[in-house]
Every structure is written in structure tokens, then in C-alpha cells.
Amino acid sequence: MANNNVYSVLKSLLLLLHLVFLSKQHVDSASIVKFLPGFEGPLPFELETGYIGVGEEEEVQLFYYFIKSERNPKEDPLLLWLTGGPGCSAISGLLYQNGPLAMKLDVYNGTLPSLVSTTYSWTKTSSMIFLDQPVGTGFSYSRTQLFNKPSDTGEAKRIHEFLQKWLGKHQEFSSNPFYVGGDSYSGLVVPATVQEISKGNCQCCNRPINLQGYVLGNPLTDCVYDCNYRVPFAHKMALISDELYESLKRTCRGEYVNVHPHDTECLKFVEEFNKLTNRVCERHILHSCCETETPSCYSYRFMLTTYWANDETVRKALQINKESIGEWTRCYRGIPYNHDIKSSVPYHMNNSIDGYRSLIYSGDHDIQVPFLGTQAWIRSLNYSIIDDWRPWMIKDQIAGYIRVFFFLKRVLLFFCFMRFALKFILDT
Question: Which keywords belong to this entry (predicted)?
Fold first, then answer.
């Protein structure tokens, strides 16, 4: 009898230890990074990296980079930045767009690529979270096999859950003004995420997030606008002739994608258009899309980043969970994903009704998401213009043009047309 009691106690202790071990596997991790391989000296800003588990069993481990504002983190806004793709790492935002570091564009010689400080970082005035999402992107991973593919609407819910948990562990930022930002494909996910957060703020069991608005750069919004306006954009940029443009307009009547197979005349001109533009770099028509030729190519930094992020010393410094992923890739092009938001225009309208401001900016050399399409879907909202087209200045130079709209006398929507494409606009 005594032996049975001892056995039962030991069995209970073993079970308890097993449960403690499993719970440890679910504990979110975070660490302060003071030095990064490739950067000379201590980092001139405060960087935190870590994982937040989301899902019923926290099976999805989302990896993030958090950088405190270099000005006044107690009061400055908190911005969550989502990179496009889907499946492109948050390192894209951190090192190519609006972060405080960039790759040093030296010729690769087999050693670890170098990092340098930037002067244009948004962390000068705001704290920023760069998030690897959806699962399988960057350093984010799943602890179990996923049976449901990530999706646009599903990611909005996961990102909201991530924020709830992240702010629960960083309560000193819970009262800061909060914004969601992103570019490219995130133009579909960000407005949905804003709506999800807004709905969550109305539910009694959720911790309210001090959501103020959102910002989007060259955002994919609706193919009716984004895809069809590639033809007028190509004409304005002198990529196609006047004659071809007029023929396309006459035969296709503004519909250049999903052309009916029997519309042979339109298809003939679309094929000619594709032949003339298929070697143009979509994200920036003046750049070469080659990846490894010379450091002068914009895409050269993608190769350097791949070497950097796959270095063991870098992974150790970032506190990456060992064996969580294999080789790091900047963009996982084959990521399993369900594209279930065809247009984010209704989300923009709902967010306006709920009182959230938005800033939409566009570079003028992106044919993938042309500024003409962005202007068109903004016009479709029928907002009133309160500040019409005027120069947007950096010191004494015109860097672009801005137009301001309002809705129900309480929401501002800013549209910036960047005459000279800025570094942080360039992306996937």
C-alpha cells in the first residue's frame, strides 16, 4: 500500500514536471540586444527581439524586432510595421525602408556583411515593432503542423492577438498613441487589422489599444485599380507609345486584366504591352532587378542580407530559437496563404467611419502598385478635399505633393505623391 502511495506521488510529480516543461515551451521570450554582428560598437538605440505565441495553444511563434523611440519613448507614438509579400521578412523594413540600420553596400568577399546607421529612421520620433508575419516568414515559425493556411483576414486576427499580448508585457506603452503601418501587399492586411483592433476595443474582455490611425506606402488595395492603372502609368512614363495606348484604351475599354479569351484584339495589344514592359523592374522602373551583379544595384542588398541573417553569430545575437527554421530567406514566395481580401476599399471606409486617420503615400516609379490606381480608389471614397494639391517640402526642395481629404468632419486622409521615390518606399 505504501509503495503504491509512493508510486502515485512520483507519478504526479513527473506529470507536474512534464506540464511545467511544456509550459516553458509556450513562454514568450524577449531579450535586449546591445551589439549586432556587422555593426561597429554598441547599437545607438535600444533593440529588443523576441517571440510572442498566438493561437489556441500558442503554436505560432511570431518573431519581432522592437526599437524604442530615440526621442521620448514615454510619449512618442508606437508604430507596428508590416512588410509586404506576403512572406517577406520584417528585416526588409528594418534594413531597407524606415529602420535605423542599413546594409553597407560593399562588394561581398565572403566575410560577414556590415551594417551602418541611417539618418532617415522613423525611430527618431516613434517606437517601432517590426513583425515577421505570417507564420513561416523570416524567423517566425510554428511549433506544430498547421492545418489551416494563413489568410488576409486570419492575419488581422493574429496580429491583433499579438498586440494584445505584446502590450500586456510592455504596459508602459499601453497609453502611447498607436498606429499600424505597412507597404505593398500589406495594403490589404493593414486596413483589416485596424478594423479588427477597433472591434476589439469595443469588447469588454480586451485591453483597449490606443489606436489613432494607420499609414500605407504604395499599398496593394484592389486589382481593379492597381492592375488596370499599370497601362496608363506606363504611358505617362513613356514606356509605351501613344499609338499602343490609344489602341489599348479603344479595344480593352479600361479592363487590361482578366480579358475574355474571345476578345482577341484586346489580347493582342495586351500581349504587345507585356512584351514592352516585362523586363522593367516593377517596384522601381529606373532600377535593375538583378540581385548579384554590383553593389550599385538596389537588389544587391538582398543578397548581402541573406548572408548576414544566416550567420550563426547573428542568429545568436538576435536570440533566434535554434532549429526553429532552416535557411532564412528574405521573401518566402511559395508561402501557403489564402488571399481572401480582394479589395481593402470597404475597410478604408469602415475605418474612416470609426474615426481613424490615414496617410497613404506613393512613390512615382512603382508600376506594380502605380500611384494612378491609388488616386483612383481614394477618389472612389468621395471624400471632400480640404487641402488641395500642393508641394510637400524637405527644406527648400520639393520632394512630392500632398492632398488632404476629410470624412464626416472628423477624419483626415492624406495622400502624398512622392516626386522622388524615397528609400523606405522601395520594397518587394
Answer: Carboxypeptidase, Disulfide bond, Glycoprotein, Hydrolase, Protease, Secreted, Signal
